[in-house]
Design brief:
single chain, 2 domains
Length: 298
């Protein structure tokens, strides 16, 4: 697996125009996300920039890795760098046209949903072909980035965020995080006993980790001239782009489905039906880790 050297700048002949300056980024009025230590802005017709103190360049590294090794549709990465003067990280990427699937979903009929699910299924299958550098980890055999393993500024927590050689080690880490969050020790013991029976024999596969509709851009395209759109050809009528790769890495095979099910929210639509077409279902595993996840976030 080729390593990604930072800072990264795409070659000039692949750029649609000169990279935006930090002044242009900071002064942009096209704001998509504006949080205390993280901002996403558009700069001109070609660029989107994610930057701030809380931005981790591993997100851009993940996207580069996918871009270089698959045809999974992600925004093209143009630059990854840090500014030591303001301590901010910058991810400069391609501006992609489209609406989020979250916005579009209520307007889609069953045929359209099936078409989009088929495209997403193909993308997820490609991700599964990316080999792990060793066990359960992030790119470069680094700690896992999912918030389940987050421990704030406490850096001496490799037993919680990894990397892990075995699934048993990862299971033990989730229990340690449960105790780290000051949740009941006896319930932690219950999870330890249960996970040994349920969470095993799941190989590490490359996982997006937050496959919610808000992180999927969809752009409608016209079918070829003279070809009507129908259930067999509808997949050609939509282009998808998958965003938000900051927690991606090699997780147990049930993880993608279990995390994606969080997007069902209040269960007021049929997203769960189409997730079963996009991803292999792990219903038993989802039920158990979902219970723990909700306790950790309560």
């Amino acid at each position: 697996m080729a390593s990604i050297v930072l800072p990264f700048y795409a070659s000039r002949d692949t750029l649609p125009e000169s990279l935006p300056t930090e002044d242009e980024i900071e002064s942009s009025l096209e704001v998509f996300i504006d949080q205390t230590a993280r901002k996403v802005v558009g700069v001109g017709p070609h660029f989107v920039v994610k930057y701030g103190l809380a931005v981790d360049l591993i997100e851009g590294e993940n996207m580069l890795h996918i871009q270089q090794n698959t045809s999974v549709p992600v925004p093209r990465i143009y630059a990854l760098y840090s500014n030591p003067n303001n301590m901010k990280q910058y991810i400069v990427m391609q501006k992609v046209a489209g609406e989020t699937l979250a916005c579009l979903w209520p307007t889609l009929d069953a045929t359209q949903k099936i078409a989009i699910a088929r495209s997403l299924h193909g993308a997820m299958d490609q991700l599964r072909t990316l080999p792990s550098p060793g066990g359960y980890c992030s790119l470069g055999n680094r700690p896992l980035q999912d918030s389940i393993f987050w421990t704030g500024d406490d850096k001496n927590t490799s037993s919680i965020n990894g990397p892990f050689e075995t699934e048993d080690e990862l299971n033990a880490a989730m229990v340690r995080k449960y105790i780290f969050n000051n949740l009941p020790v006896q319930k932690a013991d219950f999870y330890t006993r249960t996970f040994k029976k349920i969470l095993h024999n799941h190989r590490p596969i490359f996982t997006h980790g937050d496959l919610q509709r808000k992180n999927i851009l969809v752009r409608a395209t016209l079918p070829p001239v003279g070809q009507p759109s129908n259930a067999e050809t509808a997949a050609q009528d939509y282009e998808i782009t998958i965003l938000d790769w900051e927690v991606a890495g090699w997780y147990p095979s049930y993880w993608e489905y279990s995390r994606a099910m969080l997007g069902c929210g209040r269960w007021n639509d049929d997203w769960h039906v189409f997730l079963a077409q996009i991803l292999e279902e792990f219903l038993l595993e989802w039920a158990w880790v979902d219970m723990m996840f909700k306790e950790l976030w309560s």
